[in-house]
């Protein structure tokens, strides 16, 4: 029995040594998904890198708290993209859910809400949705509700509410892989999340957005809807 276990362990180690996603990148469908995601993901990286240089608020602690949770949200999204690219779709959705939770904390912090003391994510969502700057602004509330609806869908992967939220993979040798239906759903969720987080960031942390170097400013602005870009730069 010990011999069989050791053999399996060695086979798994060999699998890790030879793990290669390269062949998947020859598939134009995966490349297309990555391209669409990076349209909004890369601007988020630029904004994160500039938060400490161009803080949006006068209170140091507020800037620091917002930054650390925004950085973690970006970290979660980064992992989500990587997991989706290798075919780990359920894990990708779970990481995306974590990123959304951290972004909701950022939204609350931007509006001086005591979100870090909350234990329940649904309490967090209810609190953020009740803030006047969120609920009374039609554009902001629309973006917020898209993310809130996405969060509810992502919770299905945590609770494995039905077969559609199951991975049912018992052998690591199945990875990396590309499954069209799952890839469309997962990358679609990531793109939707990245875009709305980007839009909301430029609204609630406008000083950081406006303080970007002109090349970065243009790149971020190009990823915004025309109506929002016009409103921010009017």
- The count of helical stretches stands at 11
DSSP strand content: under 5%
Query: Total domains, how many?
Result: 1
**Topology order in helix (H) and strand (E) letters:** HHHHHHHHHHH
State the distance separating the first and last CA atoms.
72 Å
**What is the general shape?**
globular
Low-confidence regions: none
Task: Describe the protein in words.
The protein has 234 residues and is mainly alpha-helical. The protein has one domain (28-232). It has 11 helices and no strands. The protein is globular. The N and C termini lie far apart (72 Å). The model has no long low-confidence stretch (mean pLDDT 92).
Brief rundown of the structure:
This protein has 234 residues and is mainly alpha-helical. It has helices at 2-18, 28-50, 60-86, 89-110, 121-130, 132-135, 138-159, 180-204, 206-210, 214-222, 226-232.
């Amino acid at each position: 029995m010990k011999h069989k276990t050791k053999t399996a362990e060695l086979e798994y180690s060999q699998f890790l040594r030879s793990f290669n996603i390269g062949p998947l990148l020859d598939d134009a469908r995966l490349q297309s998904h990555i391209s669409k995601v990076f349209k909004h993901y890369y601007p988020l990286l630029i904004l994160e890198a500039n938060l400490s240089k161009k803080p949006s608020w006068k209170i140091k602690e507020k800037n620091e708290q917002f930054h650390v949770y925004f950085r973690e949200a970006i970290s979660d999204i980064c992992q989500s993209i990587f997991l989706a690219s290798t075919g780990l779709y359920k894990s990708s959705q779970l990481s995306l859910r974590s990123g959304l939770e951290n972004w909701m904390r950022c939204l609350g912090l931007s509006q001086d809400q005591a979100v870090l003391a909350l234990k329940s994510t649904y309490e967090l969502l209810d609190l953020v949705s009740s803030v006047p700057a969120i609920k009374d602004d039609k554009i902001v509330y629309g973006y917020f509700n898209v993310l809130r609806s996405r969060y509810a869908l992502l919770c299905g992967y945590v609770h494995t509410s039905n077969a559609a939220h199951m991975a049912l993979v018992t052998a690591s040798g199945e990875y990396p892989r590309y499954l069209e239906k799952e890839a469309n759903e997962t990358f679609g969720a990531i793109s939707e999340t990245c875009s709305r987080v980007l839009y909301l960031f430029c609204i609630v942390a406008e000083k950081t957005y406006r303080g970007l170097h002109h090349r970065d400013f243009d790149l971020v602005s190009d990823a915004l809807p025309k109506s929002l870009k016009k409103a921010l730069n009017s």
